[in-house]
Specification:
Blueprint (H helix, E strand, L loop, with lengths): L32 H27 L5 H20 L4 H26 L7 H22 L6 H26 L13 H30 L6 H29 L2
Helix pairs in contact: 1-3, 1-7, 2-3, 3-7, 4-6, 4-7, 5-6, 6-7
């Protein structure tokens, strides 16, 4: 497996190998870890701003479910475009962050305010846990406590594949009216255990994203790859937030 392989579909093994390096190795023209970190925080700021606006709009009934779905679909389309065209990342990554912010803000508001009093405060808990997980995994990576080896990469990629297959099987069961298909998606012991596993896999995926960005900086990739690296990290963080939110819902539902 290539050094640049990642579980994140945004990061393919050929992302850096196709560059001819016919440019100056100046910090102003090539990808750096610091530059990627700065753009990641900018994307997070955009996401947070649109999430706050969507939350308030949903709370005051100015945003309907249709708008939430449009934001989700729009984010998916822009994300796919960015994945296939990394050169578009400086323009599409901020749009992706804005659309996902609308989706997450509206969704979180609906969960907190319309699905029952037991979910009050769940969004801020999910945000705090996501942020804490991000910095904890960054600490593990930067200190070398956990090394991103080829074996670790293979294991996490296999785990992600297994999670997707299991989810697909249970979704199909639900589609065909099999009541057993809901066991993973409600607050059953098995459902909670499954969510814990998925959250763990998403958390370890951050390590691979850090490594990918680090390797991109070492490969002196073009400057626009900072946006692409920040975008890829955002994809994983959004996934992690949603899985933590789902886990908290299951835990609250059992009370």
């Amino acid at each position: 497996m290539s050094t640049f392989a990642s579980n994140n579909p945004v990061f393919s093994k050929d992302t850096f190998t196709r560059f001819d390096h016919a440019y100056s190795a100046s910090p102003s023209t090539v990808m750096t870890v610091q530059g990627t970190a700065g753009k990641t925080f900018l994307l997070l700021a955009i996401l947070s701003a649109t999430a706050a606006l969507a939350w308030n709009a949903t709370l005051s009934n100015q945003m309907q479910t249709g708008a939430l779905m449009l934001a989700a679909i729009g984010g998916l389309v822009v994300g796919l475009v960015t994945s296939f065209k990394p050169t578009f990342a400086p323009w599409t990554a901020p749009v992706y962050a804005a659309l996902e912010g609308v989706f997450l803000g509206a969704l979180s508001c609906v969960i907190e305010n319309r699905l029952g009093a037991q979910f009050h405060g769940i969004a801020i808990q999910a945000v705090a846990l996501t942020g804490g997980t991000l910095f904890f995994m960054l600490f593990l990576y930067t200190t070398g406590i956990v090394k991103v080896t080829e074996k670790l990469k293979t294991g996490i990629i296999a785990a992600i594949g297994a999670v997707l297959v299991v989810k697909l099987i249970f979704y199909v069961m639900l589609m065909f009216g099999n009541a057993g298909g809901q066991v993973l998606f409600v607050g059953t012991p098995l459902g909670i255990l499954f969510s814990l596993v998925v959250v763990g896999v998403a958390a370890f995926s951050l390590l691979l994203d850090f490594d990918f960005i680090d390797q991109g900086a070492r490969a002196e990739a073009p400057k626009y790859m900072e946006w692409y690296g920040a975008f890829g990290l955002m994809v994983t963080l959004i996934w992690l937030y949603l899985e933590i939110l789902r886990l908290l819902m299951k835990l609250q539902d059992r009370r």
